[in-house]
Amino acid sequence: MSDFSLSEINERIARESTFVDDLKRALSTVIVGQQELINKILICILADGHILLEGVPGLAKTLTIKSLAQLIQTQFQRIQFTPDMLPADLLGTLIYNQKTGSFETHKGPIFSNIILADEINRAPSKVQSALLEAMQEKQITIGEETFFLEKPFLVMATQNPIEQEGTYPLPEAQVDRFMFKLKVDYPSKEEERTILRRAAKTGDAFGELSAVVNSDAIIQAQKTINDIYVDEKVEEYVLNLVFATRDPESFGLNDLSGLIEYGASPRATINLILASKARAFIEHRGYITPEDVRYIGAEVLRHRIILTYEAEAEELTSEDIIKRLFDTIEVP
Predict the structure, then answer these.
(1) Could you state, in chain order, the average pLDDT of each consecutive group of 10 residues for the chain (332 residues)?
(2) In terms of C-beta density within 10 A (0-12 exposed, 13-18 middle, 19 or more buried), how is residue 189 classed?
(3) 227-328: which CATH number, 1.10.3210.10, 1.10.8.80, 1.10.150.20, 3.30.565.10?
């Protein structure tokens, strides 16, 4: 790519990405701390992906995603998943109208732009499959009629890491459909002090929000991100990271031999590039760097590396494997 065309892309990205800073500022008036969570949710919606989020209750997960929906003028739905839930409760169903003598379509809560699927592992596998199919296909069939979901469409599914009894863990093949798996931690002491003081002043820890951009800006950004430049060396770096999860010995990672049952799928390769492009966009750049890949690498890979019993016996996690990958694979 010529320097001229690269500078053109840079200028275009710098111009079209200005709303990102406004979004971050607006979110910071409501959300104390959690900058990593905010950044990665923004990256995911711009890359047209979905998020699996793990964290204990009370860490502003619902507030963050609901606030984002308000700021970009999109519809928001929070769906509480329960063991007695049916696919129709999520997707909708046909209801018989006695007056007309015909069936009418009643759309479910999935027909929204931003979905918080709370405690997805509490729902039976049929309901999980219905959600994941909607995520993948971006369309839903009710009866004989097919409906396309409006863009932007983001699902943020949460899992409570504490309560695992009586839950239905997501199968690995379905977890793979999430672009990111995020882990949310507690705020720092100073951040929690700020939350406390806000709540003490107003009786509520959170403020009011007005829209910063409309959903058209997000849809346009999703298209623009496709034009962000990826150098062949960065492509090679991404491929090496993914292939090292499948055949670690070929990349000098002999200590990982026998620890990885299944490596990352081709979806990981695609998502590493897409998410890196979205990260470059929020940094106002028209090209991606290895640092972009490293920034989102753990989120893309942590749920795609399946460990062996030996690794679990040694109390190793996918995080340990990912750290070894990034420490060993040569950065261009």
Answers:
(1) 71 89 85 81 93 76 82 89 90 84 86 90 86 87 86 88 64 84 80 72 59 88 92 95 92 86 92 96 93 95 90 87 91 86
(2) exposed
(3) 1.10.8.80
